[in-house]
Amino acid sequence: MIWNKKIQIVQALLIVVLLFCQGTLSWANDPQKAMQDTVENVMEILTEPALAGDDHWQERREMVAEELVKRFDFAEMAKRALAKAWKRRTSVEREKFVNLFKELLKDTYVERLKTYSDGSYKVVFDRVLIRGKKAVVNSLVTQKGREISAAYKMYQDGNEWFVYDVVIEGVSLVSNYRSQFVSVIRKDGYDELVRRLEEKVSESRHSENYNKELS
Amino acid sequence: MLFVALLKKFFLFLLFLLVPLSTALYAANADLEALLDDDFEEEQEIVVYDPLEPVNRVFFTINDRLYFWLLKPVGKVYTAVLADEAVRGCISAAFHNILAPVRVVNNLLQGKFKQSGTEVARFTINTVLGAGGLGDPAAEEFGLTKADEDFGQTLGFYGLGEGIYICWPLFGPSSARDTVGMAADYFLNPMQYLFASNPGTNAGLTALKIENAATLHGKDYEGLVNEAFDPYVAFRDIYYQHRRSIIGGVDSPGRQDKVAQKDKAFFQEQCPDDYGNASFRNLAKARKYQQCLENTGAHTSLSRTLKQGHALYLVGHDDRKAREQEVAMVKGVVGKDDLE
Q1: How far apart are CA A40 and CA A9, in angstroms?
Q2: ipTM of model over 0.95
Q3: DSSP bridge pairs for A186
Q4: Which of B11, B228, B246 sits opposite A16 (nearest CB)?
Q5: Of the candidates A63, A66, A35, which has an alpha carbon nearest to the alpha carbon of residue A141?
Q6: Which of A167, B176, B191, B273 makes the best surface tag, with the fewest CB within 10 Å?
Q7: Cα B255 from Cα B264, distance rounded (Å)
Q8: How many beta carbons lie within 10 A of that of residue B113, not counting itself?
Q9: In a mutagenesis test of the A interface, which of B1, B16, B36, B247 is the best target, namely the one with the most A β-carbons within 10 Å?
Q10: B194 CA to chain A: closest CA distance, Å?
Q11: Which residues in chain A have their CB less than 8 angstroms from residue B89's CB?
């Protein structure tokens, strides 16, 4: 009899634990933890006093880019941004596009993070939703009373979680690029899109070199 | 034995405490769930109806020039006088504060009574303690956060679509619906009445508001224009995505209609013969979600049934019915014995 009761207690305990865990926590391979680590690392680099100032920006941006590449799947973003147009491209075209867009996204994203260097930003991870091998990790970025929500869409590959889209205040980065790509392709064709992409990448490369010369 | 019985009661108490808690968690995550409906094959562009595109593009360019040729140079002088970003933030907060009637009324119109009350409280606290809205003690000291609503959102809440896209000179991105919204909200703007006899002051304050905002958000604008492949399309998309995300709460009838339509299409396609039979529809719906949830690797049958109950809630069943169903399912899984 006592044995039975014990089993029931263990069952009840298990139920309680499971209720706590579902949705908010998962035991292994936590996407929220993964994202939190990445953000913390990036913030640490950005606010490192030894690397402060524009003189060290080049150094910092390389470190930040290195950190981002570990967590953000820029190639997947490129693929998703092309969406329907992706299927119509040859494998050579796809590879070229992915490489270009990857570079552009990385540069753009790192450049946007530059404003975080002054240390006035706080990031809190408030919610996470896991559905199979996909997850959304939501964070709130506060700065001087302004609060902005930033959600990271992630997918699981093996034991790791990777970001495939960033949604800021309801605006998806990938969707935004997709809308623009659709419009450019419709008006001027795919080749023109690639030409503009090349132009943008070389522009950001140029400004990088320019920064180098300055420092 | 008594001790064991007590312990059991305690756990059951905990269990009942947690069931509503966990459903609350799911409800709170409904916006995140919507984000995951993005299978690659189905990935679609944001549908925008923009027959006025040529005209809109002209207005977009005018606004862009207005920023670079007027607002930005004036902003240089303005920021020389008001160098502190915090001060400019306070000015922007005061302009936000005075528009409280717009938010109070539109929250009421959408049946969001609590949020409406929050806005009344925020306005009172920030006007009195925050020096006319320059500060935000309501959020900082009382934890009352903004509940932004305008009439465009109210119309969207009840399922009205955007209509055509309009990029207004001076006002920027909007839609037919949101233009009607702007016009309606105009009458709730206290500035119209405070300075009714003095249109010059009103115009001056509006100019200050725009210039102040330009100095605060100009860098963001420049960055986005710079990054864009087609700035016009980029901003149109940002506007629509943002508006749709703030309007499309799970509780909005508009969203429920959309989900219901999607469901209807699914069943019509899957089982055209049986479609039309109401009891079949519910059963099929439950089965469909059961299937979905099995694919998601739900841990236990209990969590699965909970999710299922929530799924039913999401597809537009009324709250109480879903809750009842949920409790019944939990009872079924945990066992009658454990609940007594």
Answers
A1: 40
A2: no
A3: none
A4: B11
A5: A35
A6: B273
A7: 14
A8: 10
A9: B36
A10: 28
A11: 144-146
Higher pLDDT, B171 or B132: B171
User: How far is it, in rounded angstroms, from Cα B329 to Cα A77?
Assistant: 40
CA atoms of B55 and A94, how far apart (whole Å)? 35
B46: which chain A residues are within 8 Å (Cβ-Cβ)? 175, 178-179
- On whether any CB of chain B is under 8 Å from the CB of A147, the answer is yes
Asked if A108 reaches chain B (Cβ–Cβ under 8 Å), the answer is yes
Cβ–Cβ under 8 Å, residues B306 and B23: yes
Residue B22 pLDDT more than 50? no
Helix count and strand count (H, E) for chain B: 18, 2
- Residues of chain A where predicted confidence (pLDDT) is lower than 70: 1-7, 9-29, 145, 206-215
CB contact under 8 A, B227 and A108: yes
Long-range contacts of A136-139 (CB under 8 A, 24+ apart): A136/B32, A136/B33, A136/B35, A136/B36, A137/A31, A137/A32, A137/A35, A138/B32, A139/A35, A139/A39
- Whose tokens are 């903004």? That residue is B146
3-state secondary structure of B173: strand
Beta-carbon contacts below 8 Å between A and B: 148
Q: Does A106 touch chain B (CB under 8 A)?
A: no
The pLDDT of residue B53: 92
Among chain B residues, CA nearest to A76? B40
Question: Which of A103, A129, A163 is most worth mutating to test chain B (most B CB atoms within 10 A of its CB)?
Answer: A129
CA pair distance A18, B131, nearest whole angstrom? 49
Tokens of A121: 């930003």
The nearest alpha carbon in chain A to B85 belongs to A144
Residue A61 CA, chain-centre distance (Å), reads 16
Contacts of A134 in chain B (CB under 8 A): 36
| pTM of the predicted protein model | 0.71
Q: Determine whether the interchain pair A15/B334 forms a contact, defined as Cβ–Cβ distance below 8 Å.
A: yes
Using a CB-CB distance cutoff of 8 angstroms, which residues of chain A are in contact with residue B338? Answer: 8, 11-12
d(CA B2, CA B10): 12
Q: In this structure, what token pair is assigned to residue A40? A: 């913390």
According to the 3-state scheme, what is the secondary structure of chain A? CHHHHHHHHHHHHHHHHHHHHCCCCCCCCCHHHHHHHHHHHHHHHHHCHHHCCHHHHHHHHHHHHHHHHHHECHHHHHHHHHCHHHHCCCHHHHHHHHHHHHHHHHHHHHHHHHHHHHCCEEEEEEEEEEECCEEEEEEEEEECCEEEEEEEEEEEECCEEEEEEEEECCEEHHHHHHHHHHHHHHHHCHHHHHHHHHHHHHHHHHHHHHHHHHC
Is residue B268 classed exposed, middle or buried when 0-12, 13-18 and 19+ CB atoms within 10 A define those classes? exposed
Cβ of residue A200 closer than 8 Å to a chain B Cβ: yes
